[in-house]
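Apologies for my clumsy wording, but could you write out the amino acids of a protein and the tokens describing how it folds?
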Amino acid sequence: MRKILLFIVLLVSLISYAQKKLPKKLVFATSEGVFTVESRETNIYKIIFHPKENTHDENISDAVIKPAIDIVSKHTITRKDNELVFSHNGLQISYKKTDNYKGFVFSLQDDEKIFGGGERALPLNRRGYRFDLYNSPHYGYGEGAENLNYSVPFITSSKGYALFFDNASKGYLDIGKTSKYVLEYGTASGELNVYVIFGNYQQILRSYYKLTGTQPLPPRWALGNLMSRFGYTSEAQVKDIYAKMKADHIPVDANIFDLFWFGDSIQHTLGNLDWINKTRWPNPKQMIADFKKEGVQTILVTEPFFVETSKNYSASKPYLAVDSLGKPYYLTDFYFGHGGLLDIFRNDAKSWFWQFYKAQMNNGVEAWWCDLGEPERHPANMYHNLKDFGYKRLFSADEVHNAYGHNWTKMLFNYYAKEYPNKRLFSLNRSGFAGSQRYSIFPWTGDVSRSWSGFRAQLPILLGMSMSGIPYVHSDAGGFAGGEGDNELYVRWLQFATFTPIFRPHGTALYDADPKAFSFPSEAALINDAYKEDAKNAINLRYMFLPYNYSIAYQQTVNAKPLMAPLYYHFSNDTAAAKVEDEYMWGENILVAPILEKGAKERKVYLPEGKWLNIFNGTIYNGKQWLTLSTDLSYIPVFTKEGGFVPTVSRINNASEYLTKGQFLLNYFPSTSKTSFTWFEDDGVSKNSITTKKYTLINCSGQDLGKRIVVNVTPSNRLFIPSALAVNVTVSAKPSVVLLNNKVIPVFTNPSQINGAKDFALWMPTINAIQVYAQPTAHNDLKIEINK
């Protein structure tokens, strides 16, 4: 009896303790329903409204991974009539219902700006616009396209807060269009929630990534030149084009195969998912192996549609989305043919679909292109089975639409994790949802027009997506649809793509496969000779910056930093910078001003506070001013920020030669303030290199102390130290003395004078720089002192 009493007392104590540890919620009742509030961080609040009449309030999203914590009273929340009010900044939230939507209404201040919302070819400040939250393909779009393939219900205000609506059903955002001082959100179904995040721009984005996760590190090869077109029609053709690229010494890291790998025509083949034509593709496994020997990866396209003329249509029927009677939905108005759509929300459908990926992985395929993932055709009267999510009822297409591409990418990611536990997934998918970045999604901006308008549309799209928490969005460099064969446009687009997350020239080049479509090659080796050299230079520049690009990819994974960012993100106190929408920061140290107009002979550029170094000619400019710079087709304005470190590498054929043949240069533009940079290196392929700590952090710091400049290069270990390294420091005149690890080293003015010296410096007056050559294998750390 005594033992029983002790057990009961212990059980009651445990229950009481558990209850105390449960996150607390605030509850506010109104005449229309009930608000509940919980906290995820001291600056993050989740608000749910439960309308009295609500029936479908399920939340099918897995975007948020941050658990709730006890409510913190830093931002006091009160109820005023039917509104919630954050007292510290006056943000007001109320419920609104219309015939087709339920949602929230927020107050807007007079000078308030709103950024984000996903893919929109609109000004970065989205105030004054109403757009859909519904992933939508738009063929041949240009400037002004409001609704594109990847909407994200996450927006940031210039007043120090952000809103994230964690609901994947069809919805809308009206940001002061209907009523100037009202921001309105509506959703067709699902849980009515909003996360409110407080802070400055950088704090908000970091907090959002705490909620939804950062992107895993990409394979290093994915940051190289990916050879792609719509589309390669035979093994002979792709090998011939690659041979031309190789003959012109143009680096290539992957070949991407569009739908002709599984069919001879554009229509009526989706769902074959195998190399059908043995004449055009006599030995795919050997072809893939031949490319891999060259360090070139193979990427294949897949789609989630199975048309009735494909070899797998009958087998697909048990796994397709259904109609209201539970029968496989039969699409009759789909461009690619009559058929059905895979129900990607079902575990058995995912398992069945994976077999096709696994078969090609066994052939040597390295990565995947997931196309039409909005999905492109998704009628409102189509239904999906979410029994594996714990729900018994069928969900209409509109209720799950924005989660389709997300769950497709998640499927690939999870199967990769199971089958290839140390392989990094590279998954091109033009559609997804908040949190898709956790599953290694590399979205592109859809079927953009091959025009200057289509080109100009890309910068606001990429920056808007980056500020929406999707870091690796990119465009079909050169443009995809239509066009007139504008070589200048092609070159300018490649120069821009050099400083974007993924470099993938891609466009319609069908020729005999569709003579009616305008064709223009996407491969630099095939363009007009008068423009080829400039295109090659853009690609070589992409490879030159590979160490820097890979390091900022590491910073995204570990420290939630964006790769691309508008000037307002880094220079929020600069009112002029906040208005600049045609420039951006690439990482924290490089400013890029792409040339967006045909025939431009000059470019007006704004440089924020500080000094800026033109990377092409070494000219130094003072910031906080507008400049008008002359330009030609050979380059675009690109600047290094004062205090910035930028590691680069010598010319290589592709990323497979990076560690074995690359010669590295660490560029430093001195500042009177002490600055630092973390240069990251690993084997470039292992998924678990960060968690297993099989990497090297080369910690770089420097300062201009007046009479001398001091630079320190300190590796965390010796696993991945470059075997050939030089440190390039911008100086105004030839130094009197250069010291390496406190020892004076010789300074040469001509490379012919070196004669086998190991540690030395080379003065380069044409770019006002001193290059210190050292042997990292012989030194644990490098300390360089340059006396003026």
In short: The mean pLDDT is 95. The CA atoms of residues 378 and 500 lie 31 Å apart. The first strand starts at residue 26 and ends at 29.
